[in-house]
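Could you join me in thinking about how sequence relates to backbone shape in a protein? Would you write everything just below, so we can both look at the same thing?
***
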Amino acid sequence: MWLPNSDLPKSATTDSPALASAVASESSKISAARTSLPEAPIAKSEATAESSSIAIKPFSNSPLKPAMERPVPTPRQQKLWYTFMAVGHSAAAFDAYSTRRAISGNYGTEGNPLLRPFSHSNAIYAATQVSPAVMDYVGRRMMTSSHPTLRKFWWVPQVAGAGFSFSAGMHNYALTQ
């Protein structure tokens, strides 16, 4: 089995000058042929490492435009949204107070099955604030929607939630009088 150690021929260990010059001329022919050959292609892993080190430059320095822009609420809409938020949470607190008062005076029971476990403790005040918070979120998403009809009626969830809470609170208040 023949396994070469290198591409160059082994140096001659002979006393003959003719043989030594023949070996030297052969090795110079091999090295001359090697320099005239093209270089081997670069491996893919080396090519990607070189190309990834080059910084990617944008076509221009201007910022990119988003694919879709959400409408920005006007200052008037902002003020109304915060007002409706305060009214909705206040109406929910009034509903919780009147419900707790009606239940502790044995005038009735909690009609909402989700709030019934909280009706005999002060936790009802925190539990009733979940619905207005959800209505605030829905109203805000409608206010900044790209759909024109939803933008027109963004105030409906907050006003409806506040109205229901206030009417339930008035009902409970009338029971205790």
Observations:
- The radius of gyration is 42 Å.
